[in-house]
Amino acid sequence: MEGTENLMCRSGDSFNPWVTSSFQVSCILVTSHIFHILLKPLGQPGPFAQLLAGVVVGPTLLSRIGEVKAFFIQASSAEYYMFFSFLCRMLFMFSIGLETDIPYLKRNIRVMSIVAGGGSILACIFAGPLLWLLIKVFNVAQHRLTFYLLIFTVLANSASPVVLRMIAETKSDTADLGRLAMYTSLFNEMSCVVIVSMLTAFTSSIRFQGAILDLAVTGTVIILNKYLSLFFSRRNRHNRFVTNSEIFIIMFLLTSVSVILENTGYTSITCCFLVGLMFPRESKTCRTLLHKLTYAVNTFILPVYFGYAGFQFDITNVFNKLTIFLTVIIILLSAGSRIAGTLAACYYLKIPRSESLILALLLNMKGNYDLIIINTPPVPGKLWEEDIHDLFVSVVILNTLIIAPLVAVLLNRDVCIAHYPTTLEILNPESELRMLACVYMPRQVSGQVSLVSALSGCQNAPIKPYLVHLVELPKKKKSKLMYHQLEEGDQYSDEEEYGGNDLIEISDALDSFISETKILVQQSKIVSSFQTIDQVVCESAKDLRVAIIFLPFHRHQRIDGKMENTMEEIRTINHKVIRDAPCSVGIFVDRGHTGFQQPHGSPSVQNIATFFFGGPDDREALACSKRMLMHSQVNLTVFRFIQTNSNIHNTWINNASHKDEEVIMAISSAGTENEIDNAFVDTFYNRYVAQGQASLVEKHVSNGVETVAAIREILEEMYSLVIVGKGGRRSCPLTTGLSDWEECPELGSVGDLLASSEMNFNGSLLVIQRHRHSESDEEFITP
């Protein structure tokens, strides 16, 4: 009994440290949420409010009261606070690794290394004179290399958790600037950890052996996770998530390797990040981890971690002239080296000056690895001198509290004025394509992922696909079960039941697709009434900055080949999304096994036909076709129809076949769009036809009857997919009369004809409407 009391409450402690630590965490959480509610309308993000909450609860304000100080700050309090920080740090770095966009990292590693290196090199240079000054001030006679590494880290490090949360809360995480800042800060922080760890490892044989052990243990856990995640996913093939006990095994391994690293004198943040980064994405285990960690990390773990960082700051420590002078000098050197180095790197990379300044300020945020180094003793059992420790804590906290509000204002302004490409026509074919695919039920997944597969056929043309499951909000129902009565793995939330077995089937189909193609698709769910779900889809598309939304048709093909209504509500939703979408929209008419199939892994080439009748919608359809053309398993066939009495003559047309690929294209020359259409076709010819990737053949018709006859003749060939623009062709001579029997106006006259049973067409159909309000996007057009 006596031993237990000693364990829980050491001599010198007036209260049980577990109680005081828990109460302090609660106070920080409550205070941070209050500040966040008050400051959010002013545009200030969570990390600023949480640091400020820690400062208020800490020795700066509340803990200056005698009774509060006696309760919070005791002889063994620091050890318990460090333990809480360790747990928080382990979980959020693992979560960051799980959410990291690996393809983006691979594509932009050069840019990130240049931007991160620009500020770090200057910080390394500035750390030399600062080391000389601080040695003189504090009479540092030993551990000067460790002291230099401390100064270098404070000047050069970027606190990646702070940067990530600031960008996420200002909805900049899908913008190019936001993503570059997020991953550059991660790259910068991990580089600082590696540099400091490597230099420390060579100071003694024991530290070197510890580093080798840490690498071996980390590698072992990464390999174990690969097999465990697949094993757990197979065990739960009929469930959406794996069980809590299986997640406990994963977290036990992570905690074990983190404890080993900390005991050998190294920080575990790089290890936790790498374990999350290398975790298999195509599994239920990864989905379960993200589901359980994301809310906890953003709502509890990071506020506690940032709050505790602010709790360490005591404003009374800077109430003398020397400390104020040194604090100002270090903050200016840190900001100066980071801003000057980043601006120089951005100038070299031709990044706009306004974005460069925001990037430089974001990368100057402190509060993660620098605090770890400050609180790490230079030798075991001996901490830094109190004045050195207090000085650098003050620098880190004040630096972030000063810069965070300014960065938030700049980010919010940038989000309001920033433009992004909302059509495929103006998007560079080698630029990243962001797309949002919507499904209501499992049968629609295969068609949507087939489009994703076709559009991601070239490594030089990256794709960022999102798939969202649209679920109707049912009437509110109350669960009669208490939390402890739920089955293992169940959640005490009605929302988790929305989607039912459909959600499991959709997740399984997506997991299989990701495993087979290695194309990572971000899955989400929208639960809303069908009267307002179109607004949520449009808002999601805007937040994700996608260039096109793919919607399923409201009919599906039966076994006998006839089309049958799936849900009439889908048709209404499609109408609304087409009307209000912030980007281009495509409606996909899936014909099942006789229609378009996933090109990845397909034994046969998928033949695609594109009909081009002129105008913005048909140009958008051709732009989509150009993306699919890059896939090795896609053979594009495009038809261009010109009115018989037209004066358009294209002498560059070559009827010869190129690499067994024939491209035929149908275009009208009506209206003022004629010159734009011809220029677009010329560009297509020069870039793809002349290079042997495609061919271009004209066909002349004079009216709607001849157009229908020509389409019937074309469809006698085996095409698995036809792409056409929706278009407004009621006044076009080539489509005169086609709208007389129009059933589905959302498909346009030609699309409605192709979707009807009269055409006897067994392939799939994709009808595309270009975004109607994209004049501001013209700046994205590339020569």
From TrEMBL:
Residues 608-771 form the Cation/H(+) antiporter C-terminal domain. It comes from Hibiscus sabdariffa (roselle). It holds the Pfam family Na_H_Exchanger. Residues 466-598 form the Cation/H(+) antiporter central domain. This is Cation/H+ exchanger domain-containing protein. Residues 31-407 form the Cation/H+ exchanger transmembrane domain. The keyword Ion transport applies. It is found in: Membrane. Keywords: Ion transport, Membrane, Potassium, Potassium transport, Transmembrane, Transmembrane helix, Transport. PANTHER family: CATION/H + ANTIPORTER, CATION_H(+) ANTIPORTER 1. Belongs to the monovalent cation:proton antiporter 2 (CPA2) transporter (TC 2.A.37) family. CHX (TC 2.A.37.4) subfamily. The chain crosses the membrane at residues 80-99, 111-135, 147-168, 180-202, 208-229, 241-259, 293-311, 323-349, 391-411. It is a multi-pass membrane protein. The keyword Membrane applies.
